[in-house]
Amino acid sequence: MEDKIKFMRAALRQAERGLAEGEVPVGAVVVLNGKVIGRGHNRRAKTQLASSHAEMYAIDRACKKLNSWRLEDCDLYVTLEPCPMCMGAALNARIRKVYFGAYEQKGRSMTDELAASNLLNHTVEVEGGVLGEACSELLSGFFRAMRARTAAQRRAEGQQEGALPADGREADGDGAAE
Q: Cα torsion for 95, 56, 65, 114, to the nearest 10°?
C-alpha cells in the first residue's frame, strides 16, 4: 500500500508540472523494482499533438532507459484513468500493472475491456482509485478555473460588442450616432 501511494504522489507531481504549464493536469510514472524510470505529464497544448499524453511520455522514457520496448516487470501509475491510446501503449509495452487515480467520468476509457482483451498476447492488471480524491480534485480545480476564465472572457467580449460610443449615444444601423 505504501508504494502505491508513494508512486501515485510522484505521478501527481508530474500532473502539477503540467498544470504549471497550462496543460490538463495528468501525470504518469513508470516504476521498475521500486524506482521511477520514466516520467511524463500532458503536453498536448504545447505540442499540438494528439499523442502528447502523460502515459506516452512516461512509457517512452522508460523504454529508452531500459533500451527496450518491453517493460514486462514495470508498473504504470497515472493520475487519470488511461484513454484507449494509452492503454494500448501499456499493453504493447507489456506493462505488468496500471494504477490510476481518478476515474474517467465520461466512460471513454474502456480500461477494463482493453486490459483484459489479450489483443497483443498480453493482459495487464488494473487498479483504480489510488489517491483518487486528490487526483480528481486537481483535475476538477483545473476545469473549474478554465470554465471561469472562459465565462469571464465571454462576458468581456459581450461588453465590448455592446459598448456605447464615447459620447454615450447609441449608433444607428449605419454606424453613425443619432
A: 10
pLDDT along the chain (178 residues), means of 10: 93 97 97 98 96 98 98 97 94 96 82 78 91 96 88 82 52 42
Alpha-carbon distance 79 to 101, whole Å?
Answer: 5
In degrees, rounded to 5, the angle at the alpha carbon of residue 37 between the alpha carbons of residues 35 and 38 is: 135
Instruction: Please enumerate in sequence order all residues whose Cβ is within 8 A of that of 158, keeping only pairs 6 or more positions apart, or say none.
Output: none
96, 29 Cβ separation under 8 angstroms: no
Tell me the β-bridge partners of 74: 32
Active site residue 55: yes
Angle, CA 173 vertex, CA 172 and CA 175 arms, to 5°: 70
User: CA–CA separation, 29 vs 99, rounded Å?
Assistant: 10
Q: pTM (2 decimals)?
A: 0.83
Find out whether 78 and 98 touch, Cβ atoms under 8 Å. Answer: yes
Active-site hit among 16, 21, 55, 170:
55
